[in-house]
Write a structure and sequence with these properties.
By secondary structure, the chain is of the alpha/beta class. Helices cover 49% and strands 9% of the residues. It folds into two domains: 103 residues, Rossmann fold, CATH 3.40.50.2300; 141 residues, Hypothetical protein af1432, CATH 1.10.3210.10.
Length: 285
């Protein structure tokens, strides 16, 4: 499993950052300033370091620099109210977040920083690691999903193979299916987890998850092929979907496949308010 390690000059500031990332779905490991960096990095699952620092030469900033010397190429996010005063060594440069910050801003910075994995790691490793971490973030952000993305991806792959798509296109369908709801990271919790029906303005915010997800993946070159799926999986053949009102074959094929798989998964999964539909009933729908 992949983790984000969070360090800070004071426990309160560190914990605020950690809570914001945890609420966004990122698995967290807290670093203690008296902990040897080598022990901190003993966990090979650490894929991102997030530091909340007060000033140049602060203990947390020193720890971040030491950790990045021991683990070259480790992506990082620096959270501080002193952006113009801090000079952080190491490559790649960290994503910067100015205090006070919005939780969505921090989550997006983490997603951008994780894009470094795609550029620095061996081919085939980075995108697998990143997809796994983001998919876990989606599931954690919305616990009621309960394996939805994995089930949907399996169905989408079957559909893509049945249509005769090439292996690379099938792989893109799987990645896009796993990440189709990654935009949930940017949706306020009170809307995302609301138990009842959404008010019209809340529904409008919820529908932005397609655009938010597309924007989150924009800096990640290796995931570029998945972006049309993330953005367009709620488009509809009749043009009444969102966010762009695409219709018919103007909707990317991979997005259409994932949309169908999404419907199949929803109808075949157990719901407290209805029984699971049979394959024949699903085909009728």
């Amino acid at each position: 499993m992949s983790y984000v390690v969070v360090m800070g000059d004071d426990p309160a500031g560190r914990d605020l950052v950690a809570t914001s990332l945890r609420d966004a779905g990122y698995p967290i490991v807290l670093a203690h300033l008296d902990e040897p960096p080598s022990a901190l990095l003993a966990d090979e699952g650490i894929e991102l370091a997030v530091c909340r620092a007060d000033s140049p030469g602060s203990p947390a900033l020193s720890l971040l620099e030491t950790v990045r010397r021991l683990r070259p190429g480790l992506p990082a996010v620096l959270v501080t109210h002193a952006l113009t005063e801090l000079d952080v060594s190491g490559s790649p440069p960290p994503e910067l977040v100015s205090e006070p910050f919005a939780p969505e801003e921090l989550a997006r910075a983490a997603a951008r920083a994780l894009g470094r994995l795609v550029q620095e790691a061996p081919p085939g490793h980075a995108d697998t690691t990143l997809v796994g971490l983001l998919a876990n973030a989606i599931e954690t952000r919305k616990p009621t999903s309960n394996g939805h993305s994995e089930r949907l991806a399996s169905i989408a792959v079957d559909l893509a193979e049945a249509l005769g798509l090439r292996d690379a296109a099938v792989a893109t369908v799987r990645t896009g299916a796993m990440l189709h709801d990654v935009g949930y990271i940017g949706i306020p919790e009170q809307i995302l987890l609301k138990p009842g029906a959404l008010e019209p303005e809340e529904g409008a915010v919820m529908r932005t998850h397609t655009v938010v997800g597309d924007q989150l993946l924009a800096p990640l070159a290796e995931l570029a092929a998945a972006r049309p799926i993330v953005r367009s999986h709620h488009e509809r053949w009749d043009g009444h979907g969102y966010p762009d009102g695409l219709a018919g074959e103007s909707i990317p094929l991979a997005a259409r496949i994932v949309a169908v798989a999404d419907g199949i998964e929803a109808m075949s999964a157990h719901r407290s308010y209805r029984t699971t539909l049979t394959p024949r009933e699903i085909v009728r729908e």
